[in-house]
Amino acid sequence: MRVRIDEKDFINYPFLKESQNFVSGYAGSPERFLCTSTGKAALAQAKDRILSAIAGKSGQKTNARPALPTDHDGVKVIVSGYALARVIISCMKDRMIIDRFTRSEAQKAYECLLDEEPGKKVFIATSLGIDIGADEVPLVPYVELSAGMREERWRLVNRDIEHGMVKVKKNETDEILRECIRVTISRNLPLPVPAGICEVLASVVKEISEAEQQHLLEQFGSVEEPCFPPCMQALILALSAGTNISHPGRFALTAFLHNIGMNSSDIIGLYCRAPDFDLSRTMYQVEHISGRGGTEYTAPSCAAMRTTGVCVKKDLLCERVSHPLNYYKQKKRKDKRNAPVPSGNMLVDRNAGGAHREDEAGNSKNIRDPRGHHQGEHDQEDNKKNQA
Q: What count of other Cβ atoms lies within 10 Å of the Cβ of residue 50?
């Protein structure tokens, strides 16, 4: 029996080619569309989609899903909102927001698919190149999909491979389909949006950026050194001892400190004692990672840190997280429930402009107000805690 995709399906699966064709049939140029009543409603819907993704609310499963609009205009607003959201986050060029948006949209579509009629689910999966009835996936697509999946079981070294096919279990195909949706949504992001369109959307971009900063301020609070994961503490101590650290180590440390809110001048001060310290080069590298070039970077995941040899001195908490930023958040929450942990200031020597050795530091905590930049990936346990 032939499967028919209708307008209400465009709301649940706006990434499908059929949905894109539906939008292109009436939207026209973005500037003109934004001046229409439908365009204005779609812009508000796009903003809500992004804000929900930042706050981590879009992936929350509820017993009662909101009623979908049944009229043609309502469908146009929802589907256009998805398209405009992609344009907005492309103007922002913030990797964290792009990652959160794509994961949020993939989760929503995934939950719809779980309740979908079998024929339509197979049709959608097939259109994305996934055979949900198979117990194996071609090697090349699997490598692309598993790169964004956090659990160790998805790593290629933990899989059986025969004749170019990666073996998967029956209960894993839905997860693979969800990741395939995320990859499909994230493909080509950020889009090459003309500067004129970004100017039209500047007020919305600013509002979302401020909401993101406020959300991260609530998540991370002030910078507290005792809560740093072991890998970051080891990198800081190496710099304090006048030791050069690897390029992956520099990138990871700089991105981590930027993500939790440390300003660029303090980050640059950390590198002053490195034997190969060069001020102009360090300034360029720190500012590039911090977003001066238009793209902000997130600290690498734990899996990436292991691959580059930066992961060291793992502790018990390391076993329960998949990202240094998640370690930092969980440690801060745990320390708030317990007695405050006194610490020295390993980071910034205000007199010398460099970094202290741990044993030379004072007893006061190094606390600074964060500027609220983006965070990295969330592991499943942390997501559950945030949703609770």
A: 28
Burial 216-235 (b: 16+ CB within 10 A, else e): beebbbebbbbbbbbbbbbb
CA torsion 131-137-138-139 (nearest 10°) is: 150
For residues 184 and 200, membership in a common domain is answered with: no
Beta strands in 39-164 (DSSP E): 136-138, 161-162
For the segment 294-304, what is each residue's pLDDT rounded down to a tens digit? 677 889 999 89
Q: In the block, which residue shows the tokens 């194996």? A: 136
**Alpha-carbon dihedral sign for residues 74, 75, 76, 78:** positive
Residues 71 and 195 grouped into a single domain: yes
Q: Look at the chain and count its residues.
A: 388
Residue 47's H or E segment, with its range, is helix 37-55
Radius of gyration of the chain (CA): 23
* pLDDT digit string, tens, across residues 222-274: 677 888 999 999 999 888 888 889 999 999 999 999 888 888 888 888 888 78
Q: Within a 10 A sphere around the Cβ of 244, how many other Cβ atoms?
A: 14
- DSSP H helical ranges for 172-278: 173-186, 195-200, 202-220, 230-240, 247-259, 264-270
Name the residue range of residue 180's domain: 129-189
Q: Total domain count for the chain?
A: 3
Dist. CA 378–CA 88, nearest whole Å: 22
CA distances from 306 to 1, 152, 319, 323, 361 (A): 49, 12, 13, 11, 29
- Do 114 and 103 form a contact (C-beta atoms < 8 A)? no
Q: In the 8-state DSSP scheme, what is residue 172?
A: G
